# Entry
Amino acid sequence: MYHVIVAPRRHVPGFYDLDVQEQRAIWNVLGELRERILASQPVEKFVAGFVDVASGVEPAHTHVHLVPRVAGQSATLPRGAEWVELT
# Structure
């Protein structure tokens, strides 16, 4: 199964290093992508994986994986992310 990665324009190591407007922009993009995918695919649910980059790793660029889950299909979720189910 495919998935989408959303990254902020500004390079920071963690999601909470972004200011509130930047965090809100990411949530808005995730919501828009969710709606577009739902309109074109038979998706059961979504999970989002928030990745904070370890100290000293370059480029220090946090990002979020948006993974649509389809009934009957398995998916290997990328490691190193904090996963949450979106409703």
Summary: The CA atoms of residues 21 and 27 lie 10 Å apart.
